[in-house]
Design a protein that fits this description.
The protein is built from eleven helices and 16 strands. By secondary structure, the chain is an alpha+beta fold. Helix 1 packs antiparallel against helix 3 (98-115). The longest helix is centred in the C-terminal third of the chain and has 21 residues, at 296-316. This is M20 family metallo-hydrolase.
Length: 413
């Protein structure tokens, strides 16, 4: 596709304006964006998106889960789908998820104006829920449309004790109709454009990240049990201190992860201590371990090493230990042909890029199990995300949209 200054300016201005427009739908207490699934700001955002798309002449619909689709109809069979998620974390940024929706909207508007009707339908999707911030329903929208949800947790409550069923009713949806959602067989490709939420692109001064795979995730809950006793009268050599044992384990996790090297990461992110008072030796510590790698064998090896080391630490400190694994998500590869095409487009447009593994999860990892899928990143300022400080320059946002436009053009025209 030939690019001139007018086309460049169109994308730049439309992207900047659309990011600002979508960020207004929020009930955040601070400067960030809070748009939790099945809340009023969420509904206003999805409804406003439908209205904007309909004003462009697109056919829109909201499915029983609240996913919004907007179709730029083509003359032939097959759908090229692009988009991301509309929900946010509490007091999050205005780019996470929203950028993928805005990018798809701007790309379709661009193609309408400069190229007219496509051969294949181009469809924008705004997934209703990806974060799992209000309910533990990570990738809820994409899992529903790919029929990966086995059971509907209608009695699941949020922090305000509002059940999922009640929350859906509040925005005019019915949990009983979720069974009407069936897997699509007309989607020929899915492309998700997202901010990196990391610092590699910025550090390496690259404009585009072409994701080859999304890392697998293993999560564990570790419970270390000792003996509560008086902090002043129990000799140091006679203690069964759960905090001391747990601290050795946690230090091992961090140090061993460093030895494995990038892109392997391991994180202890949650901890509770009992009885959690200053003058009592703790008798129980519970903590989580989140481990991520693009290599399944590496995940398994770390799990085995971690379990062995933790048990040894427990024995030395006269403690009991239980290691429970509750999540094992395998690494997911993106489509090799789409990835190669994205790389070629970057070369042609003289955009600097790098091939990447995503350590964060995205709807693309769900879609990739069922459809040809590509995931592209643009830089995040200082790698900050899930924060009001989340930022990507308009120039970088526009560069990502340019790549998306060209991908959609090749797939649909």
């Amino acid at each position: 596709m030939h690019w001139d200054q007018a086309k460049e300016t169109f994308i730049y201005q439309q992207t900047e304006a659309s990011i600002k427009w979508l960020s207004q739908f929020s009930n955040s207490d601070g400067e960030g964006v809070t748009r939790l699934v099945y809340t009023n700001p969420w509904l206003l955002a999805q409804s406003a998106l439908q209205e904007k798309c309909e004003a462009m002449g697109l056919e829109t619909r909201m499915d029983p889960a609240g996913n919004v689709f907007a179709s730029f109809k083509g003359n032939e069979q097959g759908v090229v789908l692009t988009g991301s998620h509309i929900d946010t974390v509490k007091n999050g940024g205005k780019y996470d998820g929203a950028y993928g929706i805005v990018a798809g909207l701007v790309a379709i508007k661009f193609l309408q104006e400069y190229l007219g009707i496509p051969k294949k339908t181009i469809e924008l999707v705004s997934f209703c829920e990806e974060e799992g911030s209000r309910y533990p329903l990570t990738f809820w929208g994409s899992r529903l449309i790919t029929e990966e949800v086995d059971a509907i947790p209608s009695v699941q409550e949020d922090k305000g004790h509002i059940t999922l069923k009640e929350a859906m009713n509040d925005v005019g949806l019915s949990i009983d109709e979720l069974s009407l959602i069936k897997k699509r067989n007309d989607i020929q490709a899915f492309i998700e454009l997202h901010v990196e939420q990391g610092m590699r692109l910025e550090a390496n001064e690259k404009q585009i990240g072409v994701v080859e795979q999304i890392a697998g995730v293993h999560r564990f809950t570790v419970t270390v049990t000792g003996q509560a006793n008086h902090a002043g009268t129990t000799p140091m050599t006679m203690r069964q201190d759960a905090v001391y044992g747990a601290s050795q384990m946690i230090q091992w996790v961090t140090e061993q992860a460093k030895q494995y090297g990038e892109p392997f990461v391991a994180t202890v992110g949650q901890m509770s201590v009992k009885p959690n008072v200053p003058n009592v030796i703790a008798n129980e510590v519970t903590f989580t371990v989140d481990v991520r790698s693009p290599q399944p064998d590496t995940l398994q090896t770390f799990k085995e090493e971690m379990t062995t080391v933790f048990k040894k630490i427990a024995v030395v400190n006269d403690l009991d230990i239980v290691v429970e694994q509750w999540l094992a998500t395998p690494p997911i590869m993106m489509d090799s042909e789409l990835t190669a095409t994205a790389k070629a487009i970057c070369d042609e447009q003289q955009l600097s890029y790098q091939m990447m593994t995503s350590g964060a999860g995205h709807d693309a990892q769900i879609m990739a199990k069922h459809y040809h899928t590509a995931l592209l990143f643009v830089p995040s300022y200082r790698g900050i995300s899930h924060s009001p400080l989340e930022h990507t320059s308009t120039a970088d946002l526009a560069a990502g949209v340019k790549v998306l436009v060209e991908l959609l053009y090749r797939l649909a025209y």
